[in-house]
């Protein structure tokens, strides 16, 4: 910085102000400092900066199974929001979620000097792991259930299921079948809850729930079973788009026409959904909003000196109507 100051003909403090985007620097002076930085190839030493400021400008993220669209998109949204806020991100991806694993991951990130941590906790076991944590560092959970131990940012899964189910009932279907996600996943539970509540409120028959594991294979197996009941099944709400793809494949093999015989609504709105055959009606989650609110809550804690503000911020979902849903017999 001393070399940059000398080359630009300014003080050390002025260089610091330029590097930190301080508003009280004249445009001409800022330009001269930036030219000197480019000329000298100056790069800030983030380790030295952290020692002086006691802030690393790095946030930790604990996640699970980032091969799945939801968790991967959530982590991407968090990373982009952190970068927009001027922070780097250090990610620990766990193969399995349990109390010991989450605790170890958080301790590892604390040892790396992160300023705060986002835990992507879509499973009940992950949410439970947060209940006994008191690390003395700001933490936000994404999904995370209703634990009162840390702030939570989540998508309203139950509302998404209500939108999907109500859409199919409004089209004229007598009831709606459901292919759910894995038992331990909070998102799957929320979608079952919204589906069940909507049918119950409408006074409709509540069919047996078919189980899946988020994979197209499990959707395919559920679709094979549903295809044998094509006479009594006219509408299906599937808990994610990958399983919906499997259901569509099974229906095609069994000669069940979508949406003429059975309508399908998925969940997530993966980029491929609009290119399914037929294009998939689905529920869209705003992962960018989840990321932004997670970082906002975390930085709010940093500003308050790591005081826990036990808020729960819920991001609303949207229904995207495409060609896979229609009135019965349409």
UniProtKB/TrEMBL annotation:
SUPFAM superfamilies reported for this sequence: lambda repressor-like DNA-binding domains (SSF47413), Periplasmic binding protein-like I (SSF53822)
Record keywords, A-Z: DNA-binding, Transcription, Transcription regulation
SMART domains, sorted: HTH_LACI
Residue ranges of domain HTH lacI-type in the record: 1-53
InterPro entries for this protein: HTH_LacI, LacI/GalR-like_sensor, Lambda_DNA-bd_dom_sf, Peripla_BP_I
GO molecular function, a single term: transcription cis-regulatory region binding
Protein name per the record: LacI family transcriptional regulator
Organism from which the protein derives: Planotetraspora kaengkrachanensis
């Amino acid at each position: 910085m001393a070399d940059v100051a000398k080359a630009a003909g300014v003080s050390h403090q002025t260089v610091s102000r330029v590097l930190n985007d301080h508003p009280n620097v004249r445009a001409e002076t800022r330009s001269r400092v930036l030219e000197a930085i480019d000329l000298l190839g100056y790069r800030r030493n983030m380790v030295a900066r952290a020692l002086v400021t006691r802030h690393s400008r790095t946030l930790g993220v604990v996640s699970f199974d980032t091969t799945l669209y939801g968790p991967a998109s959530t982590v991407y949204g968090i990373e982009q929001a952190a970068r927009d806020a001027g922070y780097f991100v250090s990610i620990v991806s766990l193969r399995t979620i349990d109390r010991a694993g989450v605790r170890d991951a958080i301790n590892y990130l604390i040892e790396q000097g992160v300023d705060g941590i986002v835990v992507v906790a879509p499973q009940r076991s992950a949410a439970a792991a947060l209940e006994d944590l008191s690390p003395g560092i700001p933490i936000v959970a994404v999904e995370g259930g209703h634990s009162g131990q840390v702030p939570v940012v989540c998508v309203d899964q139950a509302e998404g299921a209500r939108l999907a189910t109500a859409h199919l009932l409004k089209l004229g279907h007598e009831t709606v079948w459901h292919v759910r996600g894995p038992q331990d996943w909070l998102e799957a539970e929320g979608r079952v809850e919204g589906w069940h509540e909507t049918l119950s409120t409408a006074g409709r028959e509540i069919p047996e729930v078919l189980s899946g594991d988020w994979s197209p294979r499990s959707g395919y197996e559920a679709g094979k079973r549903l295809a044998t009941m094509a006479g009594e099944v006219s509408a299906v709400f599937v808990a994610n788009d990958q399983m919906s793809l499997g259901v569509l494949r099974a229906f095609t093999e069994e000669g069940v026409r979508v949406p003429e015989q059975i309508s399908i609504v998925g969940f997530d709105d993966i980029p491929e959904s609009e290119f399914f055959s037929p294009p998939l009606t689905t529920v869209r989650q705003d992962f960018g909003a989840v990321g932004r609110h997670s970082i906002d809550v975390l930085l709010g804690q940093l500003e308050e000196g790591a005081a826990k503000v036990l808020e729960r911020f819920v991001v609303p979902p949207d229904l995207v109507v495409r060609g896979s849903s229609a009135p019965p017999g349409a």
